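Chapter summary example: a protein plus (S)-3-Hydroxyhexanoyl-CoA.
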Amino acid sequence: MTKINDVATLEKDGEIAVLTLNSPPVNALSGPVREGINNGIKQAIDDADVKAIVLICEGRTFIAGADITEFGKAPSGPSLFDALAMIEHGPKPVVAAIHGTALGGGLEVALTCHYRVAVPSAKCGLPEVNLGLLPGAGGTQRLPRIVGPEKALEMVTSGQHVGAKKCLEMGLVDELAEEGKLREGAVAFAKKIVAEKRPLKKVRDLNDKVEAARGKPEIFAEFRKANARKFRGFLAPEYNIQCIEAAVNLPFDEGIKVEQKLFRELVTGTQSAAQRHVFFAERQVWKLPDVPADTPTIPVNKVGIIGAGTMGGGIAMNFLNVGLPVTIVETKQDALDRGLGVIRKNYENSAKKGRFSMEEVEKRMGLLKGSLDMNDLADSDLVIEAVFENMDVKKQVFTKLDAIVKPGAILATNTSALNIDEIATAVKRPEAVIGLHFFSPANVMRLLEVVRADKTSKPVIATSMQLAKKIGKIAALVGVCPGFVGNRILAQRQREAQKLILEGAMPWDVDRVLYDFGLPMGPFAMSDLAGLDIGWSKEKSQGATIRDVLCEMDRRGQKTGAGFYDYDENRNAKPSPVVEKIILDFAQKKGINRRKISDDEILERCIYPMINEGAKILEEGKAIRSSDIDIVWINGYGFPVYRGGPMFYGDTVGAAKVLAKMKEFQATMGDDFKPAKLLEKIVAEGKKFSDF
Ligand code: 3H9
């Protein structure tokens, strides 16, 4: 065996050279890996006894892409293009041997190899789009030459990982090797192509599939139209499409030039920086400084849920989905029946859509037990309370649970607002109490705020994070404070939105600005969707807010055909003259002199106080790091990924600008805009939010 460098070795198996890369964790294409490929291939080419070369990786995966940490830094070592040219233009066949994932630059390496062999469990993909990028090493030009432009469009704009069997069908992989025997399989394949004297198959020279699509711009027009909603606001999908178009319409080398130009534009832009930030933030969020990875966890084999309402039912589904038995407790039979019925219906709807079989529905429902007796939760390992938001009721529930549930179990509350330290005073084992704040619909939304109370034990925290992962959530560990991280920040925006419509904007102005910023919908459209009467009571309503007035008029949102907007029978929203008049009258009654409010002011007043609140949260230690706040807002509230979350967005705007605006607003509008101490400090020290 010859050592090429620290990450690459070359070995001979008869007339086949095997170049092995070993650069944990994912064999990303760092400088040493590029050097290993370049020099290893060269050495094998120079060895007259070698007839073909197998490129294979150690560890959990084939090359998973470019080294994302290198973007924006000065490159070192040979360029990826030199390494790729060494493979593709070399005189000897190179076979990529794929296990785990061949992603991004990894698949691009495999595409310059002359043949590809994979184990059945392997996956291939070009996920650059998820980092705000496009495949910048020839992937957009080579992939359509094998799989055709339609499939290539799907792959580059979705970033999906395609299983090896499907890759074989598409021609992306030439042969499957037996699972666990990749090296043997790839070497045997290489020997076969040598024996058969097969030609060097260069993907760049294949033209039939792209030529067939030439002169058919409708392929691209239709694709854009069909995906317009999904791609809204993102640059990368469109740039990827343009590259595939170039592959179809231009000679290979010209197409590469288009790819390079568009790649450079994306990689130096803010969107990709934001999306790369999110990639690392999603991994960071699991790391808890004072709860190390080896903290003991509590085995959770049985889950209890109190409350079969929308929240309780949705929460239950998460556990049933992964095969964990759930007992759900209600106080009345009809409420229980209704709750269980909704769960069944949700599953049946998924089965009808083809997501799984009817047997699977029965399997999941078979794990679910309904009960009217809390004693049935005695042997649960985790109980989640999802009753309505009232401190006294919650405390009573916890005191009862304390007497019933076995020692060592986790007692969780799904409260979105109440003080969990106070809830924990209702039990003799406060160390077992934690907040698990699911977002509605709980079976769909990816975010889970894991709320650590003063006395919550580390094993309870570690177990909650582990469970979150198991049920497919992204969890952020946060501290107890009003609204925790997500809703506390939301309150800032809601307050400003309400003030803005009295001062001069209309609901549809505020909504438009925030929608254009990239949020799924603005605050007023959101209220209409959720129902304006959540938390409103006819008896207590005194017309004190615009919402009160609307509810009193039975304009309770989409469900009543009117709210802040008027709705037609298809639920299309239209600005409402009635609401406009209500707002004008209301402002007049309050003696407010309405003025013209610019879109910039709407945006700054809605978003900057959110960033400022995020800084307060960090200063109080209620979130571990600023990127955790970004994760909460991206996954719980639809903050646009391409802006990186509110805190990253604050960095792109610049903390100094945020501070200056907060001060300006404070001077004219008061202490709602009082800058956080941490914001002042960040500016004074020339730092960024992401440093915290
Ligand atoms: C590209 O290729 C551009 C080219 O077209 C252009 C060339 C000119 N770089 O996810 P995990 C780290 S763009 C650096 O927890 P898993 C990750 O941060 C790239 N680091 O494991 C983590 O570190 P830590 C296109 C990377 O088993 C550790 O590895 N490729 C990279 O759940 C483990 O990761 C992609 O977008 C990287 N490329 O999943 C693929 N990838 O332990 C991105 C991972 O310190 N990667 N790390 O937190 C993935 O999708 C998943 O990591 C993978 C493994 C599926 C591979």
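Key point: The chain has a mean pLDDT of 95.
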